Amino acid sequence: MNTESIPKPIPKPTPTRASKRTATRATKPSAPAPAQTDLAAPEAAPMRFLDTYLAALLARASSLISDEFHATLARKKIPVLQWRVLACLSDGSLPMGDLGRVILAKQPTVSKLIDRMEAAGLVARQEDPASRRRTLVALTPHGSTLAAELVVLALEHEASVLLPFAPETAKIFVDVLRQLIAQHSK
Fold this sequence. Notes:
The chain has 186 residues and is mainly α. It has helices at 17-27, 54-75, 80-89, 96-103, 107-119, 141-162, 167-184, and strands spanning 94-95, 123-128, 131-139. A 3-stranded antiparallel beta sheet has the order 1-3-2. The longest helix has 22 residues, at 54-75. The termini are far apart.
C-alpha cells in the first residue's frame, strides 16, 4: 500500500497566549450581566455610588442638558463659548475677569475669544469709568440681536427640560442650585 497517497493529518496550531485566554473564556460559565440601574425605580438593584453622589449627578445632568442645547448651537454654527459670552452680556457689560469666571474659561481663552467676537462685530471693549485698569466687554447692536435670538432658544430648551416637573418643583430645583452655587463660590 502506498502511504504517500494517504493525506496526513493537519497538525493543530500551537496555542498562543491569546488563543488560550479565548479558549478559557469560552469554557468558563459566563457571569450574569451587571444589572442596569434605573434611577426611576430605586427598589430594583442597589444604587452605585455615582448614582447617588451629588457632584456626579450634577455633572451628568449638566452634560446631558447642555449637549441637547449645544446641538441647536451647532446647527446655527455658534461655538459654545461664544454663546456663553453672548448670554452673559445680554444683561449688560462685564469686566473681562468676571466674564471668564462666568463662562467657565481661562483668561487667555477669553481674551482670544473676545478678539474674534470683536472682529465679527458682536462685542466691543470699553474702558471702565470706575477703574481705568479694568476693561469692560459689551454687546454691539448686532451682538444684542443674536444674543436675544439665542436666549429665546435657550429658554425654550429649558422649558422642555423642566416640563415633566410641577412648576413648584422646578422653582425649588433652580433655587437649590443657586444656593449651592452661592455657598461654594466663596
